């Protein structure tokens, strides 16, 4: 999974500022299907790397760039309900929820592109999260005769 966020630039007569962030994550888990059920439960554990940047361009031509990168760990518990469109479980509508926690074990400060580390503490999101899932999919069953 890879995500990126870029905010619109903010500008006035003194200059322009832009903030952006992104991360990539590798997840691994195990699906627990219930026999002949449209319900699926699965935990996931992930490791990833992310970063954010803050760029300031002053009206006089001076430019400052600050960056912060982070290693993080996530764990989550997912529940999904499938409304199967056919008897074989090939396709259908899916809804679900996810409850998780994101942890950042590092405390490295922001780094200025030319001067090195600053005394500004990094602000990376740590804590619980909740996702609502809506989409499509299906569960296929291989029955023993």
Topology diagram in text:
Blueprint: E1 2-6, E2 10-12, E3 15-29, E4 32-33, E5 39-58, E6 63-84, E7 92-103, E8 111-112, E9 116-117, E10 127-137
Antiparallel strand pairs: 1-3, 2-3, 3-5, 4-5, 5-6, 6-7, 6-8, 7-10, 8-9
Structure description:
- With 145 residues, the chain is mainly β.
- The protein has one domain.
- Helix content is 0%, strand content 65%.
- It contains no helices and 10 strands.
- Strands 1, 2, 3, 4, 5, 6, 7, 8, 9 and 10 form a 10-stranded antiparallel beta sheet that branches.
- Percent range of helical residues: under 10%
Helical element count? 0
Largest sheet: 10 strands, antiparallel
Distance between the termini: 38 Å
In the predicted model, the low-confidence regions spanning at least 5 consecutive residues are: none
Order of helices and strands: EEEEEEEEEE
Number of domains: 1
Mean pLDDT: 79
Beta fraction: over 45%
CA radius of gyration: 22 Å
Content-based structural category: mainly beta
**Overall strand count:** 10
The geometry reads as: elongated
Short structural description:
By secondary structure, the chain is an all-beta fold. It is built from no helices and ten strands. Strands 1, 2, 3, 4, 5, 6, 7, 8, 9 and 10 form a ten-stranded antiparallel β-sheet that branches.
Descriptive tags:
65% strand, elongated, 10-stranded antiparallel sheet, 145 residues
